[in-house]
Specification:
- Helix content is 84%, strand content 0%.
- It has five helices and no strands.
- It has helices at residues 3-33, 37-72, 79-107, 114-120, 123-137.
- Helix 2 (37-72) packs antiparallel against helix 3 (79-107) and helix 3 (79-107) runs antiparallel to helix 5.
- The longest helix is centred in the middle third of the chain and has 36 residues, at 37-72.
- It starts with a helix and ends with a helix.
């Protein structure tokens, strides 16, 4: 069995799950900003469960498998890889900031607008574009 290809496949599967959460959680925040009181508890539960039980495990598995892939094929690491790692670090920062918003909504102290979260929802798209283009094209 080719462990490199298996790790790569699992890395991509975990990445899809992580990005699903990174795309969906800010969208839940958009709805939460103007949610009626009776819907707020449901949104809080959804936000917490998505962040804790889907996004964290998927992010950790994505990162761990990515590190494993580096050890299995160190010759593939070149200049583009450093840029990709910076984008992954920014992605983790985005992930952690989402966690702060989950806590703020849970405490009822969110001060951000629906428009803010609509724009914030676009951040992972640009990070995904950069990461995938670098990984596939290996430009330098």
């Amino acid at each position: 069995m080719d462990f490199y290809l298996l790790a790569k496949a699992l890395h991509l599967i975990a990445l899809v799950a992580w990005f699903a959460g990174l795309f969906y959680l800010p969208r839940l925040f958009v709805y939460h900003v103007h949610a009626p009181t009776d819907a707020e508890l449901m949104l809080r539960v959804m936000e917490f469960r998505l962040y804790r039980y889907i996004m964290w495990p998927a992010g950790i598995v994505t990162t761990a498998l990515g590190l494993w892939l580096m050890t299995l094929n160190p010759g593939a690491i070149a200049g583009w890889f450093g840029v990709k790692m910076v984008l992954v670090a920014v992605l983790w920062g985005f992930h952690l900031i989402l966690g702060l918003y989950v806590k703020k909504f849970a405490a009822g102290v969110n001060t951000k607008s629906e428009k803010f979260f609509r724009l914030y929802n676009e951040v992972p798209t640009f990070l995904l574009l950069g990461i995938v283009i670098l990984a596939v094209m290996k430009p330098f």
